[in-house]
Amino acid sequence: MKLKTLIAAGLATTALGAAPALGQSTMEEAHDRYQQAMNETVSAERMMSGDVTNGFNQLGDVRNLVLDQTGQRIEYILYDVPYPSSFYGEDDGFVRWDNVAIERGGFDGLDLRIDDDAEDYRKEQLTLTKAEADGRLVDNIVGADMMFADREMREIEDILFDPETGMITHYVVEFDEDSLFDEDTRLVPASMAGLDESGDYWMVSQPTTYEYQVWIY
Fold it and tell me: I need a labelling partner for 134 at 20 to 30 A (CA). Which of 26, 66, 90, 199 fits?
C-alpha cells in the first residue's frame, strides 16, 4: 500500500511575514492557521527543487509539475535526466502523481520516489502537448498575477499541495513586493481563487470587506 510521507518540519520555504496591527487573538488564530497549513502541505517550490528516484538511484531532476484538466491537482511529474547519465542512453520521462511518495531530499528539496509496483514512463509516451499543458504547468502559475478585491495585482510565489491527493490547498502570495527585507506573505485558500474569464490572471473571490490579513503570519 502506497504511503505519502509528510515531512512536518520545514516543508515550506516561505518566510513568516510581519503581522499587521491585529488583536492578539486574531494574530494567534492567523499564526495557528498558517502553521497548520504549512505542516499539512507540500510546496511546489520544494518539489521542483527535488529529484525523481526509484528508492536506490536518482532517475532525474524534477522539471515541472502538470495539473489535471480541472487545474486543481497534480497529474504528472516531468523530469530531466542529467549528464552524464543522459550521455549513456538514459532518457527524460514522467511519472503519474499517484505513483510517487514524498521524501526529504538534498538542498532543501523534496524527492519524489516512484513506488516499487509502479513504473516511470519515457517522454514519448506522454500524449499531452506543450500547448495543451501550457495553462497546467505549475512553473507558469508561480510568478503569475493574482487580483484581490482592492483591485491590486500581487504575485503568486508558491503553491501548496495536499501530499496525499496532490490537490492545491493554497496559493502563497506576496503582499508587499516593494519591501527589501521583510516578506508579507498570505496563504490564499484554493477554494477562493480562480482564473478570470479571459484566462489572463488569477483572481480572489471575496467581498471587499473580507479581512484577508488573517491569512498572514
Answer: 90
- Please answer whether residues 211 and 30 qualify as being in contact, where contact means their C-beta atoms are separated by less than 8 angstroms: no
| The overall pTM is greater than 0.70 | yes
C-alpha cell at position 16: 513568516
Mean pLDDT of 138-149: 89
Please state, in angstroms and rounded to a whole number, the distance separating the CA atoms of residues 138 and 9: 23
Q: What would you report as the CA-atom Rg of the chain, rounded to the nearest whole angstrom? A: 18
Strands (E), the chain: 42-43, 51-53, 58-67, 74-80, 93-96, 100-104, 110-114, 121-122, 145-147, 153-161, 168-174, 185-189, 193-195, 202-204
Of 2.30.30.240, 1.10.1740.10, 2.40.50.140, 1.20.1640.10, the CATH number of 24-42+138-215 is 2.30.30.240
